[in-house]
Amino acid sequence: MDFSKFGFHATYKNGYKLFFDFDIQLYAGHKRKTFEGYKSLIYFLAKNRNKRLYLTKNKVEDFSEDGDNLVINLEQYQKFCKSIGRNGENRAQAYLSRRIKHYTDEEEKVIITKAGDEQILDWIRALPMDKKQNFSYKLKQVDGIQVPPDTLLDEADFSNMLSLALTEPEKLKILTQKYPFPQAQAQILEEYKCFLEKTLERIDLEKDKKDDAWETYLRDWLNAKIDNDGKICSKEKKLMEKDARSRHLIFGLEFIDHKIEVLDAGQRMDVLTRINPDFGGREYVLIELKSPKAKIFDNEKKELNISQKLARAIPQVLEYKSDFETKVDGDKDLDRHKLKSGKIIKCIIVIGTTKEDDRWKKVFLSLKLSFSNLIEIWTYTDLIQRLGTTIKNLKENL
């Protein structure tokens, strides 16, 4: 391939470069060099320093490999990324691993154990036919899973067999226990981390979307009203409630018994949870969600004054706390959510994102310390970092 046709390039953090045969700024519709999925490509380069990535819209249908040069169809790559629910950093690795054959068996195992359901299925479908035959043989050894009796399968047979094996939860459970691919089922928190990362990327790209729209979007996702692609969920109520309980784990595994949209003084607290099962379950934590697009400070280039959004949020949660603590057992709002009266021992406001500016970080740290006795202020960047630490601890201690 004539790589001289890739006349555009963009340099990212730590000097990593991507090469394009088109103007990425025109394609993305803004003056920056960012686009959906770019962070995963940079992560791939950081792990594979001998590689060079070339992005195209039409020179390859999917991607191709020429020595250490990888040519990727950007639209196909982004389409693949949207179908993935888990580890954001490994999306490029998983995409490329479907057909590039230079990975060892051990490397493939690492990639697949970090993948999500759609990645796993896509990876299996792209296996050479000899490996598909081996996979079908393995499936035949699993009690409770029926596969076609033929010893030789064509592509259609294999696809149908795989779909049948994975459509029912009990069969999928059998398969995950017997076959090494779906260790990724345990990586649910990575799925949520990936969703939050993609949301922040979208905010960076969709400049015209208002603060309140992103706030509603995050609340709807947290309460399982939408899925990880932002589409309205059509699950049964009990399954949606189960998903919502799971998604609330993004705030920390120390929190239990989450209640959402608890009515108080005519307004709804976003999340009311508990951190201590002792003391009769009467110690609560209040979590208030604001827009990830909202500013922490106004006039950031000069005074760094507290923004109006944050300035309103602080007294708001303190009012919630005060009103809740006046309630006694038997209060209709408490009974509706099966709550006991008690004390709110911690308030958390999640708002905005951390800026890559030393002065901004210094002032923000000072602000957080000033309110630390009453309120914890987290950015969504903080939330993602905390979630990453939780995932790391879980993996190291499994």
Distance between the termini: 46 Å
Weakly predicted, low-confidence segments: 111-119, 174-186
Biggest sheet strand line-up? 1-2-3-5-4
Number of helical regions: 16
Helix content: 40-55%
- Report mean pLDDT, rounded to a whole number: 77
User: What is the alpha-carbon Rg in Å?
Assistant: 24 Å
The largest sheet, given as strand count, sense and whether it forms a barrel, is:
5 strands, mixed
Helix/strand structural class = alpha/beta
- Overall shape: globular
Helix and strand element order = EEHHEEEHHHHHHHHHHEEEEEHHEHEH
Provide the β-strand percentage band.
Answer: 15-25%
Task: Tally the beta strands.
Answer: 12
Mind explaining what this structure looks like?
The chain has 398 residues and is an alpha/beta fold. The protein has 16 helices and twelve strands. About 6% of the residues have low confidence.
Short overview:
Helices cover 45% and strands 16% of the residues. It has 16 helices and 12 strands.
List keywords for this structure.
about 400 residues; alpha/beta; five-stranded mixed sheet; globular
Record the SSE blueprint.
Elements: E1 8-11, E2 17-20, H1 24-28, H2 38-47, E3 52-56, E4 63-66, E5 69-73, H3 74-82, H4 91-97, H5 105-113, H6 117-125, H7 129-140, H8 155-166, H9 169-178, H10 188-205, H11 211-222, H12 237-247, E6 256-264, E7 267-274, E8 283-289, E9 297-298, E10 305-306, H13 308-325, H14 332-336, E11 343-350, H15 358-371, E12 375-378, H16 380-397
Helix pairs in contact: 7-8, 10-16
